[in-house]
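Suppose a colleague, Dr. K., hands you the sequence of a protein chain of 354 amino acids and asks what its three-dimensional shape might be. Before reaching for any lab equipment, you can write down a predicted structure in token form. Begin with the sequence itself:
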Amino acid sequence: METVRFCFLAALAIALPSPPVCAQSGAGREPLAAVELGGEWGFINRGGGYVFDRHFEGAGVFSEGLAAVKIGNKWGYIDETGKSAIGAQFDSAGDFSEGLANVTIGGKVGYIDKSGTLAIAARFDHAWPFSCELALVETNHRRGYIDRAGKMVIEAQLDMALPFSEGLAYVNQAGKKGFINDKGLFVTDFPLDEGAGKFSEGLTVVEFEKKWGFIDNAGKLVIQPQFDYAFDFSEGLAAVGKDQHYSFIDHEGRIVIPPRYSRALGCDGMKFSEGLTVIQVDDQCDFIDQTGTVVAHTELHPMTLISSFSEGLAKFMLDDKWGYVDKTGRVVIAAKFDYATDFSMPDKTAGPTF
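The predicted structure, expressed as tokens, is then:
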């Protein structure tokens, strides 16, 4: 299958920025973000203007051309013009991924296609978006994985499990913690602690004896556990730290940006996006590039939570309100929303949630 093939090829392209794993992105019309203000949800463009006349009781992000919206007490989907694509009929609705979306009907979860047809019967207690042709599901407090036909391909006998990323998934089976492949076989043969991330650029963070390191998708420990904390790789670099100071390392574990930044306050960024991350410099939040050079100053103070860049803007939270800042450090949409999502192209796949 082409999507499964892409899951493994994506791990080989570790030096290059890439779209979300198992996702295909195309040319949408303009990036949009979902925002909440006073209990009403709508969609804005990068100028901060609402793109649809109507507002909703709830909304998700656009994914594969459709966004879940709540109308009254039910959820349906709209297209990028704001028109109803699938009528409001579900108790809850998730993002489309690989052509299917998880929806709740009568307390059970199944999957619909883009026509709104129920493709996989609503029989699960919980379910997650498809990733690498498999979806994580839960029934009777046990987790397993189904294929696109709804067949249980990895039996629901796992105490804990995460969605697949780059062909592997972290699970806990009767106390054995590690990563499995799409056949349900463990690829890690050494004990792991509770902590583990998703695979990104061929590597993932793992916790071993209270220290963090990285394994590759063959299950081999490639960067020894030595850090007090560590985060997923993004754009070739990963944030790691000791004693409340962090640095950025490359895929070989070499320090690229020295440990001169404190992780004590909120504006510190844990990953690069679109070539930048945010750090604390004295009493403000600034942006650095992948050499560690400060390239933009902001007027946002260190208690501001700043997210990753997406489509040229990064959302931030200040005094419990959300706004957006651009790559020059300028606030382009004031912090006035009760909640806000990242900007994304409407036809882009949202990707698996961890």
